[in-house]
Amino acid sequence: QRGLDNVQNITNAVYISNHQSVYDFVTSPGMLRPRTVSIGKKSLLWIPFFGQLYWITGNILIDRENKTKARNTIKQVVEAIHQRNLSVWVYPEGTRSKGRGLLPFKSGAFRMAMEANVPIIPMCVSTTHNQFDLNRKDNGRVISEMMEPIDMALYQTMSARELADYCHGLMEQKIAQLDDELKQETIARESVNSLN
């Protein structure tokens, strides 16, 4: 886990992360900052035990099918950021990528950050697709990296859509860099092992 020093002095923010699988919370638990809630789809509520726990612990459920309700939720989240002194964790892809790379971002998280006037903090996790096997003891290495905060004051002329696309590009580049680093480590390790 890298880049935690990038957020030491941040009180409220919108954290965005790539969403690969149901194991995402396992791969980067130390990245969650205090007083941070996440936003999930309303259907999570119906997952036995998890759904109720998710809701009771203050996380926010959004009805993505109803655009009016979704917009109202954004307003409520903006109020919560300031009134309850919270940060919000969002997967802007809106769904798990399941090995399809970084999917296009929805603009809601960026609209939230703009309306709340808080920084966006991208958090990238190296590709984990086909890496996890619960029957295997060693599932390899994963790198999580918190990128530098994106200050809304510097991006006032952008629309939420443009900001989403800009952040997508930054994160896509970073994830490729993390994947390449892990690939080079694997090549080096296999090279050493072949000599033994």
UniProtKB/TrEMBL annotation:
<dbReference type="InterPro" id="IPR004552">
    <property type="entry name" value="AGP_acyltrans"/>
</dbReference>
<keyword id="KW-0594">Phospholipid biosynthesis</keyword>
<feature type="domain" description="Phospholipid/glycerol acyltransferase">
    <location>
        <begin position="13"/>
        <end position="128"/>
    </location>
</feature>
<dbReference type="InterPro" id="IPR002123">
    <property type="entry name" value="Plipid/glycerol_acylTrfase"/>
</dbReference>
<dbReference type="GO" id="GO:0006654">
    <property type="term" value="P:phosphatidic acid biosynthetic process"/>
</dbReference>
<keyword id="KW-0012">Acyltransferase</keyword>
<keyword id="KW-0444">Lipid biosynthesis</keyword>
<dbReference type="Pfam" id="PF01553">
    <property type="entry name" value="Acyltransferase"/>
</dbReference>
<keyword id="KW-1208">Phospholipid metabolism</keyword>
<comment type="pathway">
    <text>Phospholipid metabolism; CDP-diacylglycerol biosynthesis; CDP-diacylglycerol from sn-glycerol 3-phosphate: step 2/3.</text>
</comment>
<protein>
    <recommendedName>
        <fullName>1-acyl-sn-glycerol-3-phosphate acyltransferase</fullName>
        <ecNumber>2.3.1.51</ecNumber>
    </recommendedName>
</protein>
<dbReference type="GO" id="GO:0003841">
    <property type="term" value="F:1-acylglycerol-3-phosphate O-acyltransferase activity"/>
</dbReference>
<keyword id="KW-0443">Lipid metabolism</keyword>
<comment type="pathway">
    <text>Lipid metabolism.</text>
</comment>
<dbReference type="GO" id="GO:0005886">
    <property type="term" value="C:plasma membrane"/>
</dbReference>
<keyword id="KW-0808">Transferase</keyword>
<dbReference type="GO" id="GO:0016024">
    <property type="term" value="P:CDP-diacylglycerol biosynthetic process"/>
</dbReference>
<comment type="similarity">
    <text>Belongs to the 1-acyl-sn-glycerol-3-phosphate acyltransferase family.</text>
</comment>
